[in-house]
Amino acid sequence: MIARLILIALVTSMVGLLAGAVLWPDNLPDDARHRPITSAMPLAVIGDSGSHSYQDQITFPPGGGLRDAALRERTFQWTEVLARMRGSEIDLGPWVRWGRNGIAAWLRDEMGLGGGRAPRKEDYLYNFANTGAACKNIMGDRLGQRYRQVPRLVALMDREPERWRRGAVVINVGANDWNRLLDLQASDPAAPELRATIDYCSGQIERAVDTILASHPDTRILVVGAASDADDPGTFDKYRSAAARDNIGKALKNFDDALRGIATRHPARVAYVDFGTWFRRLWGERGPGGEPAYRTVAIGPLQISNTAGDGPENAWLGDGHAGTAMNTLWAQHLVERLRELTGAQLTPISDEEVIEFLTH
């Protein structure tokens, strides 16, 4: 009798899940479904918390959670900067509250109904990045099916193939796989676990590139290189030896070389964006003995240091994510790379505009 009751409960639960997956409201406004094609270049994003909009009040509700700061309303991630500074030229889609519970999205995928975006968040329509995403979530491999990003993005792009003939996709993911291995990077850059992580993440990104181009061969793709967590202020008391610094550099080069290789194999459609070189050009790096030896970056009256805190003078927020100044400078750099890759007539973001944006 007990076994029968358990079976009935399981069947009832499964039926409920299936019904919920089918009936779960899409919540995508009609004006987001049927938008006119304009001269703005559509831009989509695959990524993790570094590309998840900070103003999302579903994932980061005011009064709790990440990025809960007095300066929240002026704390922007790089897509939010682009939308504000180049919104007439770069189309990230409308700002929408859209998406489904991960289980519901997965069940809909399995039933051929389309999962949409998961998890539900408040963000630009074409931004599929979500906090906590790892390389398994790029294609939905291993246990990443609930939050598979690329297949669901491509399904959205497939609704408007003409729009995406002029579009671009930024892929910036891997930090949650890579940064947890920083101790190993410092001790043995040739460690098998590091090699396996590099091969897995680069393989997933290459699959993403192939999947996007198979349906949208004219879309361009930017693959962003890895960042070193040794440049995070929270790690400054570690990795002080020259050997640790050199080992981390070698490990990071191995990862970046794998990502460069993807762009090399698709030279007409894919470009590599070297985050590490960009960061070092601005803030520098640790000294010969591994000690912090970073510069400050002058932006008008602001002096941006490689420190953590919610004020605008810090490169990083208190929660470890890039601050508004870093994101604004990164947006400036990405516009240049998009111009180079796509040939689009995007207006460069001037230093004067950066100063104006950050100080007013």
Question: How would you explain this protein's 3D organization?
Answer:
The protein starts with a helix and ends with a helix. The strands form three sheets. The protein has a five-stranded parallel sheet with strand order 2-1-5-6-7, sandwiched between helices. The chain has a three-stranded mixed sheet with strand order 8-9-10. A two-stranded antiparallel ribbon has the order 3-4. It is built from 13 helices and ten strands. By secondary structure, the chain is an alpha/beta fold.
Quick overview:
The protein has 360 residues and is an alpha/beta fold.
Largest sheet: 5 strands, parallel
Number of helices: 13
Output the helix-strand order. Answer: HHEHEEHEHHEHHHEHEHEEEHH
Distance between the termini: 70 Å
- Beta-strand level of the residues, as a percent range? 5-15%
Structural class: alpha/beta
Write out the strand line-up for the largest beta sheet, numbering strands in chain order. Answer: 2-1-5-6-7
Backbone shape: globular
Query: From the coordinates shown, what is the CATH architecture?
Result: 3-Layer(aba) Sandwich
Runs in which pLDDT lies below 50 for 5 or more consecutive residues are: 14-19
**CATH fold naming:** Rossmann fold
CATH homologous superfamily assignment:
SGNH hydrolase
Helix content: 40-55%
Secondary-structure topology with pairs:
Elements: H1 2-23, H2 30-33, E1 41-47, H3 78-86, E2 90-91, E3 95-98, H4 102-110, E4 121-124, H5 136-139, H6 150-158, E5 168-172, H7 175-178, H8 182-187, H9 192-215, E6 220-224, H10 242-265, E7 270-273, H11 275-283, E8 297-299, E9 302-308, E10 314-316, H12 324-342, H13 351-359
Parallel strand pairs: 1-2, 1-5, 5-6, 6-7, 9-10
Antiparallel strand pairs: 3-4, 8-9
